[in-house]
Amino acid sequence: MRSELYIDGKWTAAANGRTFDVVNPATEEVIHRIAAATAEDVDLAVKAARRAFDKDGWPKLSGAQRAKYLRAIANGIRARQSEIARLEVIDNGKPFPEADWDVADAAGCFDFYAGLAEQLDNNPEEPIALADARFTSKAVKEPIGVAGAIIPWNYPLLMAAWKVAPALAAGCTIVLKPAEVTSLTALELAAIADEAGLPPGVLNIVTGSGSVAGQAIIDHRQVDKLAFTGSGPVGSKIMAAAARDIKRVSLELGGKSPFVVFEDADIDEAVEWIMFGIFWNQGQVCSATSRILVQEGIYDRLLARLIEETKKIRIGDGLEDGVLLGPLVSKRQHEQVVAAIEAAKTAGATVACGGKRPEGFDKGYYLEPTVLTEVPLESDAWREEIFGPVVCIRPFSTEAEAIELANDSRFGLAAAVMSKDDVRAERVASAFRAGIVWINCSQPTFTEAPWGGYKESGIGRELGRWGLENYLETKQITRLATGEKWGWYIK
Length: 491
What we know:
Layout: E1 5-7, E2 10-12, E3 19-24, E4 29-35, H1 39-54, H2 63-79, H3 81-92, H4 96-122, E5 125-128, E6 135-143, E7 146-150, H5 156-170, E8 173-177, H6 184-195, E9 203-205, H7 210-219, E10 225-229, H8 232-245, E11 248-252, E12 257-261, H9 267-279, E13 289-295, H10 296-310, H11 331-347, E14 350-353, E15 370-373, H12 380-383, E16 390-396, H13 399-407, E17 411-412, E18 414-418, H14 422-431, E19 436-439, E20 454-455, E21 458-459, H15 464-469, E22 472-480
Parallel strand pairs: 7-8, 7-10, 8-9, 10-11, 12-13, 12-18, 13-16, 15-16, 18-19
Antiparallel strand pairs: 1-2, 3-4, 5-6, 6-22, 11-21, 14-15, 17-20
Helix pairs in contact: 1-7, 2-4, 2-5, 2-6, 3-4, 4-5, 9-10
């Protein structure tokens, strides 16, 4: 396991020599210590990225040349997939099959953006038709510059890939700060990039706290673009800070996503997708469909099946075979989720199942998967992101009521609908005020498709070609035709 910062192609201790603990959430044991970056370290990283962009020629490489590095990184991840997935488990707590899937997706992300980098060579400029035949004009795409990226702890390597891969493909250089509680696999990404021969300064990774290292990235005047995934309050502060220098920003923030189930749906299929939509990754998913709206005709039967199947979920250390729900990521997160459940009860909600530490787990940040019913619409449990394995469920009568309840949120990241009536499903999907909509499923995520939300769930889109465009500027180049005289002042 790596422990140092990766700056300008070198491994280095923090300027003040400080480190912080890495804790396995399944055992509460300290398993490693890693460097805690200071503002001085961040400054060195940004200056290295600045030099790599301005002087060393990274943005001047062809897309095909950058694609070779991206594919080498993808292959490096795949060569160590099981090892990296195991690090993800002991750092984050998720079950190994989920971590293994995430690592494979991260490799695929680098491959995908390698392809888009090559396409940049095929379409270097776009001719523009002008009304004045004396001029010609074209639009070209150019990399923004130095990107500062701050990622969350729920998908450590995958969220790094979502930002690093498109930034490098576009020709940007980058300073990445992983979440303090899950930094191990980001450092392994640096090692893989180093082995791939990525030029010094193109990728820099600084570990440490958000208040110190993260803030230093946000405030640095030589950072051209900020990319952040995390909570709404932090996103708001980043946006305000970015306004000082008119930095480009892309923000992927929280959600409180609805899942509408109509009475013609198959109950077992609905229960399967409800569970996948909230218990995958211990519910620590920004797009988790945590508000379930079920049509009255099947509500009681569906609720009974949901409780029955939820009680069967095997809880345990993510490295154990058959485990489908690991511990929450940290003591703090465990305390916050437990507090949210208690607040829901105080507000009048009923705990239909779960809601407490499972028996036999004296150590580790474990929590039973939880189903809340009779949740008041004005309560925090219904309106605010809990970010844990906690789902709220209530009945509805009409399609109009379901749409109104689904959209009654300050968030708009994702939404799902389940119905055998394709026309109705499409109609409801169109009515959702959300950036990501699923029909007859919940949570499938593809590198090729745009990812991002409406309202307070963020600004901009990641993934697909939209993710690449996050790191590109558009330049107009207009030319006066050869031989033409303007003659406005000099006749």
